[in-house]
Amino acid sequence: MASRYYRLAEDLDIPDRWQLGAPVDQRGQTVNPWQFTKGNSVQLDAVLRMPVSVGGKPLDFTLAELDIPVIDPKVAAILSERAPGDVQLIPVQIDSQPGAHRILVATRLVRCIDDSASEEVRYWTPEDGRPEKVGKYRAVSGMRIDPTKVGDAKVFRTWGWTLALIVSEDIKDALERAGVTGLKFTEVTGPSAISPEERERNRRLIELREQTDAARQAFWRTLGTLDEEVIIPIVVGGNWPARRQVWRVIHRPEGRTLLVTDGLSDFFVDRAEPSVGFGLELALETDEPIKDAEKSWPLMLLAQMGNEIAEHEILREKVKAGFLSMEVAGQGLPEPLLTKEGRVGGLLGMATSTLPGCFIMPAGEVRLVTVKVLMPVELAYLLEHGKLGRDELVRRFAQQGQAHLSRAWRQPVV
To answer: I need a surface site. Which of 119, 286, 371, 376 has the fewest CB within 10 A?
Structure first.
């Protein structure tokens, strides 16, 4: 009978469970947290302490910050007995908790992920701009491993995707018999959970995603320095073509920052065929300083307008044809931008000499639509005077050297 293996994770459904922070040394300095999940032994001279970041019910097994496994003496005894050559157990003091807790370090790294049986795997490529990661896994979902490649390992991490902590069936059974709290097991052996048809469709979707991402990133880099360090969490779902909402940050000359949507021109995931989605992306540029892009007002405004565009076809058609004025809820946006009703207005589609009006993707042309935030009196002027008012605003913006730039702190032009 083929061996069975399980991915070990924390049971997040346990109510009122505690949460642990990253380990620190005796001086309170955070130690390198990544070393505990690389799949090899750790050399440490420091006495480690781990803070309780959220108080609650202590667990026998916990994934601390950055998925560092922390175990109590009961779990440590089981692993020491059944897999002594696979684990390193590093003592750690937990605030306000007695007992000899340990950081569990799996010291075996096994190259065993079965790409063809897993639901989805993606690799880092040279186009991603991370040469140190090329050839390694960028994402793995619905993981399956090949048990014939595991050898005698009973506790290990998977090569190329060390986020996964794997244990053998006998380790799983021993932990369950001991009543260990905090554990959740997901089998990573056995038949694939998806059909050959689903697998082929997923393969095609991955191929389309990689082509689309590479083409857009290449274009973004022509506009300035694409920020690889700023990570704005992807929102999954909604009405965007591929059901993923993404934004990117581009640094431009003279201290300007360009924020762009990165998914309105995705392929339609339901069709799994090449396309440019809605055929547009939004771009908001500002010369005001941005400390934290993820929490900044330009990104909040861009996200709201992107969602409105994705939800309403009539808005997409208007913005493709030329200009579009739009209002969105102003919660969390700067006070000078708010109307009496608590909303914020913007003018979409202003032409500018410093940004191209469109770019080419493998499946066709995409329009780059600028977003200009309006002061409340400018929005009122536009609504009162219609097309003539809009044209006058555009003329005055250009005359005063503001063009398409968005600022929360400026004098209105009317």
So the answer is: 119
